[in-house]
């Protein structure tokens, strides 16, 4: 049996002693994941019914891009803010203005921890390194960031506790607080600390993958203007310009979906799945994997498998289009992992990716800064593998 491993430092270096959903195992994981999936479904998480909520946030996001008036800018901050607002609507029951200082600071802290998460590898496996007086690996700074994120979320939880109406569940926090009160005298899987951890997990599942994939996709489109034009042509012929693309348009936009799949593949956002432990001795192809071994599933071994993806280092959406012009090969994409621990936010992430990328290409032509070449296709490893910072121009289509 293989189960999730709660390392000394968890995904965002938040919630050090509390597993939440992602880092939990055994009965705690089962209770939290079942609860989260059930309640998120109640709120329309990843479903067609949630599409109007995303469209509302998307329209605000597109209007923010227009304010740059075709000048070059870095899209990373604004896209993370927009994605975070969608998760805020589910967890906290409301969205924030992009210029709200507390919300902006919260998003900034999350991004710092996501971007710097990879350097914590040595501290995860040699915890005593955290005690060094010099913050070589940035662990102490990430811990401070985590505490500030906790404080922001705790304030929201406190407000929810004051106004909680068990007959009118507004969001995920309300649902968790009700469950917490009902379970207080039983197994105690639910706690205030695990609520904080669970919210952090939802942000990891619902914002980082999507925002980073969109940044990769735009980088590839800057370097492949013919692909960008082909996307726009398909959108223009099947949707037009009078409304935002919707989920019902998806069957008519196979090329756009192929671009998304290829961005997920070549962007290689999650090279390794979350660490797991072996709960008992197992044998694989004659090799013994001892109990308590740590396993890091290598997802990028699939990404660059030439038998699955010929010329695997080339950005080529056509590999996901068959001879009849239909989408194919979706099952080869493992960005969201596999099995019972498949990413909690997969359905939301796929919905966001489709709605955001099609709307972006529908409304804007994306170009490098005037006089510059397209950005080099390079990445940086943090909690996810993200593109290096680059600037872009969004030119409104006439």
Q: How would you characterize this protein structure?
A:
- With 398 residues, the chain is mainly α.
- It has a single domain (2-396), classed as Cytochrome p450 (Orthogonal Bundle).
- The protein is built from twelve helices and nine strands.
- A three-stranded antiparallel beta sheet has the order 1-2-5, with no helix packed on it. Strands 3-4 form a two-stranded antiparallel ribbon.
- It is globular, with a radius of gyration of 21 Å.
- The termini are far apart.
- Mean pLDDT is 86; it is low at 1-17.
- InterPro entries: Cyt_P450, Cyt_P450_CS, Cyt_P450_E_grp-I, Cyt_P450_sf, Cytochrome_P450_fam2.
- Residues 1-23 form the signal peptide.
- Belongs to the cytochrome P450 family.
- Heme binds at residue 343.
- Its cofactor is heme.
Tag the structure with descriptive keywords.
398 residues; mainly alpha; Cytochrome p450; 3-stranded antiparallel beta sheet; two-stranded antiparallel sheet; 9 strands; disordered N terminus; Cyt_P450_E_grp-I; heme; metal-binding
């Amino acid at each position: 049996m293989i189960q999730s491993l709660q390392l000394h430092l968890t995904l965002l270096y938040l919630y050090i002693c509390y597993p939440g959903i992602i880092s939990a195992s055994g009965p705690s994981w089962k209770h939290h994941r079942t609860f989260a999936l059930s309640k998120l479904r109640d709120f329309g998480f990843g479903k067609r019914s949630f599409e109007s909520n995303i469209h509302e946030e998307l329209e605000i996001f597109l209007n923010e891009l227009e304010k740059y008036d075709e000048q070059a800018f870095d899209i990373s901050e604004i896209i993370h803010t927009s994605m975070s607002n969608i998760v805020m609507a589910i967890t906290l029951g409301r969205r924030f203005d992009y210029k709200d200082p507390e919300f902006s600071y919260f998003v900034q802290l999350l991004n710092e921890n996501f971007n710097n998460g990879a350097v914590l590898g040595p501290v995860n496996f040699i915890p005593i390194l955290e005690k060094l007086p010099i913050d070589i690996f940035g662990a102490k700074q990430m811990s401070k960031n985590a505490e500030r994120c906790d404080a922001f979320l705790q304030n929201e939880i406190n407000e929810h506790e004051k106004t909680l109406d068990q007959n009118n569940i507004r969001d995920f926090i309300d649902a968790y607080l009700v469950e917490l009160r009902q379970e207080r005298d039983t197994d105690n899987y639910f706690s205030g600390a695990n609520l904080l951890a669970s919210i952090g997990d939802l942000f990891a599942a619902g914002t980082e993958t999507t925002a980073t994939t969109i940044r990769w996709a735009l980088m590839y489109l800057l370097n492949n203007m013919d692909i960008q034009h082909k996307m726009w042509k398909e959108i223009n012929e099947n949707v037009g310009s009078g409304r935002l693309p919707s989920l019902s348009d998806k069957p008519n936009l196979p090329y756009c979906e192929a671009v998304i799949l290829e961005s997920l593949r070549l962007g290689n956002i999650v090279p390794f799945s979350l660490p797991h432990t072996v709960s008992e001795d197992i044998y694989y192809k004659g090799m013994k994997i001892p109990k308590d071994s740590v396993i890091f599933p290598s997802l990028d071994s699939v990404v660059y498998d030439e038998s699955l993806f010929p010329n695997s280092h080339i950005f080529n959406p056509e590999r996901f289009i068959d001879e009849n012009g239909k989408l194919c090969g979706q099952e080869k994409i493992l960005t969201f992992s596999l099995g019972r621990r498949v990413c909690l936010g997969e359905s939301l992430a796929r919905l966001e990716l489709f709605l955001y990328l099609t709307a972006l290409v529908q409304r804007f032509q994306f170009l490098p800064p005037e006089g510059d070449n397209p950005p080099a296709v390079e990445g940086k490893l943090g909690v996810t593998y993200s593109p290096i910072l680059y600037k872009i121009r969004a030119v409104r289509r006439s």
